[in-house]
Amino acid sequence: MPIDLYDVIHRRRDVRGQFTGAPIPDQTLDRVLAAAHAAPSVGLSQPWDFIVVRDRAIREAFHRHVHHERDVFAATLDVEATARFDRIKIDGVLESTLSVVVTYDPQRGSPAVLGRHAIADAGLYSVCLAIGNLWLAATAEGLGVGWVSFYREPFLQELLGIPAGIRPVAWLCLGPVTHLEQVPDLERHGWRQRRPVATAIHTDRWGVPPR
Question: The pTM is what?
Fold first, then answer.
């Protein structure tokens, strides 16, 4: 039965608490990573790499770091925001089956990356396209993905032995889930509400509403 792309897009969620820890078949993981690698990239530079992290000790070390950074962020919040934040689970590092760390090599394709001469961040945008492909492919496979952003890049570089000059862009928790929530976690817990698509569309110039 064909998978409806729009259904996958709207079912996709940033998963935290629904991971089962069940194994991912090798062929499934291969398909998901191949989908990520099929993303478009500026100058066909393909500036990404994917580190598949299964080692429990590495994940536990990262988990400790993440929760330290959670405390750092929590200390900046007022009382009302703290109460909302306390309800939010920020990661599934230990509950998920494995993690995939996506990196960015700005030297890939150098010295002349076609299309990047005027927009230095075009390579970084390319990596985000690969992450988007991975996320949608995983959703189509019945897997959950959780993007963990509570970390310092130097810590993760040292933890995984990432060479100098290569940036870790995303730590993605990956694995089977009990279900995908219909409403995103941050919306369910009252942190933010999604805005209607019409408020994001402008015509010809900024601030001119759609016709």
Answer: 0.92
